[in-house]
Records
---
Amino acid sequence: MNMETILEWVNRRPFEPLALRLSNGEVHQIRHPETVIVTKSRMIVAYPEIDRVVFCSLIHVNAIEALQAA
């Protein structure tokens, strides 16, 4: 996956929650655009409610899916 594609999803207004599926089987849900930072080759996903930060390479993002709004 590339930076532009992920940023298109993150920057949509109104924001739509999304899930990122990685090559290792992990799924990261992004419910707020402020919890993700996307650079040219990497991404940081923050989970402030559990004090967790995940770093991943964009080459490992296999799919992006829209989530149902909470």
---
Amino acid sequence: MQTLKNDILTVQVSEMGAELQSIVKNGYEYLWQGDPAFWGRRSPVLFPIVGSVWEKKYRVGGKEYEMGQHGFARDMKFELVSATDSEVWYRLESTPETLAKYPWPFVLEIGYKLEGNSVEVLWKVTNPGSEDMFFQIGAHPAFNYPGFDAQTSERGYFSFDKSEGLESITIKEKGCVDVDSTYLLNVEDGLVPLKSDSFDNTDAYVLQNSQVSEVTLRALDKSPYLTVRFDAPVVGLWSPPSKNAPFVCIEPWYGRCDRVAFTGEYCEKDWVNALAPAATFSASYTIVVE
């Protein structure tokens, strides 16, 4: 476990999955602590896929592979590359085991940079192979609801850097989306109310096409509690359906699950990224504790 610390925040990161483990301000824990009764993870990286592939199968050059939801990097041990009081970097490289289920060699680097009241999460994906590689990458941080009370139904609010016409694509079957079915989020005075049953019928809100680049979780009094800023083209918002869970996830994605019944090549997936030999893809998102 590596610890980053300044006068405002104390942050911890594990080498397993290079996963964020804790964000503490004034003795208060903002990051969900992984109670398996609700959801046993905290902030896993999603690589080399985001979400689900149809029937847990995908194809490269006509050959079929199997892949579980959100890929395998979150369950692998990363190598610590460097660490200071304010920044830490980890690396994961492809192995014969990963190549058997994902046929492209890769180098995945994940960094965390602490500055003031914010944590920047940085990703670098490098293609060391001789052919173009295709991949997706995403975040899945879970944040404790402010002032959570299991006996009440109100949880707080979301606000965005855009407040009108916010559209979510529908998750329909086996964790995949119906690309022809969307719906508008229920925005009231610029806010989306969050309740204990908000995700019971939708599983998740999935906003694509760069509709927003900032999501703020607000307390019951509508004051800002935590903000996630990003350039990713897709963001997922999720809390476990029908569990009255004490947390909600704000997930910037460079990728998305398959559409229902998709049986094309991996390189034809929606929101897939292509990387030329020797090239590096770089991206980041920032968690701001208000």
